[in-house]
Write a sequence for this structure.
């Protein structure tokens, strides 16, 4: 239905010729923008309602004194539904450790929460289809679980800043919202998020449409195809400075995949965009000594690169 | 009344602080508004997501930016 609406606008109202570069690019742009904003609005709203039932204080209680493995799996899953912003990373980290959540389990949460976020999932689902979105969730969870287990096994507690262990943490009551308040919260949250990301979506889809219409097929196959062993690490390195712009980056990557970028490279790039960020590293430096910070980023990077190679090999 | 806005200095925390200032002005009530940015003080309230609002030592909410109207209802 959206497709025929976009076709109608471009080829009937504006009168561009089907098959022309400009016509195809504009058709692609209108269709994708409509589809993505529709999905974003509905799903962010639903996810926000679910999130009101999982405040971080409750997640902390669910995870405290959980053991390895079970704890890591639960932490990665809770990372999907617990609202998280990197500016709260420090209080969250301290709160978790103080209530007895093991270090490795805390990291599984810290890795999964930004990586498996609803905006990235919606964009992947809308542009790449549900299969790729599911693969992204699945591998994202595995990366978070495995990285957390490895950090736990390395026994790095002494590389957490010393003051963290001495902190006195109060016990805030969990404020339970009425259903009405939950809906209000979800509405405000959705509007705020859309207000923040819409320019990135429009620019991203615009660039994607341009690539779709003007760049020749298989243009990238030589450099970013499955046969270039350096494509995955380069994609991961490029993803780091693009932090938090999943909304703008995914449409561009989608167009690049059409032009021959391999799927594993695409997934690794996306994960690097969402999970590895310099601002987060700077914030975490408040609670982690350098060695643990380097180990954390090293392990996550290695896990993401493995995901890239794996999917380039099997798909 | 003593109002504390807890937050480590992110954009959302500043927005909440501004909203609190406006809410207090509009309500015409007497209140001292303090920005709390030190981690130990924030942790002492048991707050794990910022920004959070504390009125007379009691955590009213955390992890969101409340509207001016909403804050006026809490004063």
């Amino acid at each position: 239905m959206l497709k025929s609406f976009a076709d109608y606008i471009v080829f009937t109202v504006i009168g561009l010729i089907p098959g022309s570069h400009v016509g195809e690019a504009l058709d692609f742009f209108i269709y994708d923008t409509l589809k993505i904003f529709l999905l974003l609005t509905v799903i962010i709203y639903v996810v926000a309602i679910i999130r009101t039932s999982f405040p971080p204080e409750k997640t902390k209680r669910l995870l405290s004194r959980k053991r390895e493995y079970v704890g890591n799996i639960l932490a990665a899953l809770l990372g999907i539904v617990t609202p998280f912003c990197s500016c709260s990373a420090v209080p969250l980290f301290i709160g978790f450790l103080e209530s007895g959540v093991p270090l490795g389990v805390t990291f599984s949460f810290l890795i999964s929460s930004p990586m498996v976020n609803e905006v990235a999932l919606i964009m992947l689902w809308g542009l790449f289809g549900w299969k790729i979105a599911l693969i992204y969730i699945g591998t994202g969870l595995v990366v978070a679980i495995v990285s957390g287990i490895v950090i736990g096994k390395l026994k790095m507690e002494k590389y957490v800043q010393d003051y963290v262990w001495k902190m006195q943490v109060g016990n805030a009551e969990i404020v339970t919202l009425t259903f009405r308040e939950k809906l209000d919260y979800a509405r405000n949250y959705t509007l705020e998020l859309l207000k923040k990301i819409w320019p990135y979506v429009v620019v991203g889809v615009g660039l994607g449409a341009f690539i779709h219409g003007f760049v020749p097929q298989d243009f990238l196959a030589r450099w970013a195809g499955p046969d270039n062993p350096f494509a995955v690490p380069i994609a991961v390195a490029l993803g780091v400075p693009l932090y938090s712009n999943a909304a703008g980056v995914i449409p561009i990557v989608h167009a690049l995949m059409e032009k021959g970028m391999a799927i594993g490279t695409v997934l690794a790039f996306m994960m690097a965009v969402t999970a590895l960020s310099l601002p987060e590293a700077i914030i975490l430096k408040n609670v982690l000594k350098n060695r643990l910070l380097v180990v954390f980023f090293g392990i996550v990077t290695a896990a993401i690169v493995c995901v890239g190679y794996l999917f380039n090999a099997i798909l | 009344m003593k109002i504390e806005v807890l937050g480590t200095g992110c954009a959302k925390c500043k927005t909440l602080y501004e909203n609190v200032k406006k809410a207090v002005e509009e309500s015409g009530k007497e209140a001292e508004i303090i920005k709390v940015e030190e981690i130990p003080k924030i942790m002492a309230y048991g707050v794990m997501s910022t920004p959070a609002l504390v009125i007379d030592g009691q955590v009213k909410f955390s992890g969101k930016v409340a509207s001016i109207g909403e804050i006026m209802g809490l004063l």
